[in-house]
User: Fold Diaminopimelate epimerase from Novosphingobium clariflavum.
Amino acid sequence: MRIDFTKMHGLGNDFVVLDGRTGALPPIDAAFAAALADRHTGIGCDQLIVLAPSDLGDFQMLIFNADGSQVEACGNATRAVGLLHGRPATIETLGGIVSTTPTDTGISVEMGKPRFGWQDIPLGYAMDTHAMPVAWEELVNPIAVNVGNPHAIFFVEDPYRIDMARLGPLVENDPIFPERVNVNVAAVTARDAITLRVWERGAGLTRACGTGACATAIGAMKRGLVDRKVTVTLPGGPLTIEWRGDDVIVMTGPATESFRGSFETADYGIPDKVPA
Ligand SMILES: N[C@@H](CCC[C@H](N)C(=O)O)C(=O)O
Assistant:
């Protein structure tokens, strides 16, 4: 079976998008997602995005990390899919309903409301996620913010001096985070500016992470370090994040289509059979 795909990115965080809104796709499992995402033997991407019909929104967006794990939210992919759709959309995700609107300055996304609180950890007690008394070498005292998916945010002097390739996986896979976690290292440089690098759960160091930018901005606001609207600059470029008075996070930034193509499912070990 031949399947069309669109290769897209948001600030260099790249996606393969499969559109199953009108025609059926074969079942997508973790092995298929990881095979497509492989940069040497597949198409290559940080996340595989699958669009499907929805009863709750205009359509549904399924998100798979490069390691094949299925996750709840992806900010950059939401902008990319908003661009693909070409007009305002409400999108069902595992993390909730998000909505996208094309604007003069890019695609704007209402990401929903952040969640904090207490996290039950496998050590037999609950921990306040606003200021977790834990450390991984120089990464200390994170705030954990859930914006559909889970993030730990560490405020540091210079994110580019942190050895993310070594410390990222240590934090991501620590049993204190039962669902694993996205690891953000951030420096507040002004009341409206943050510099950020993200080690993504299931994908490693990416050029940008939209939900990471949202969670980090909210974490900094919660700690009183910045105002309610900030520019978060990632290695791939800037995003604007606003925490509105109604508690909803709004992210605005660019999205780009790189190219379109098609592949044979048999080349990825997928049987030539579409569910009825
Ligand atoms: N790149 C994304 C986040 C993708 C999911 C994340 N790695 C997770 O496991 O939660 C973004 O732009 O938000």
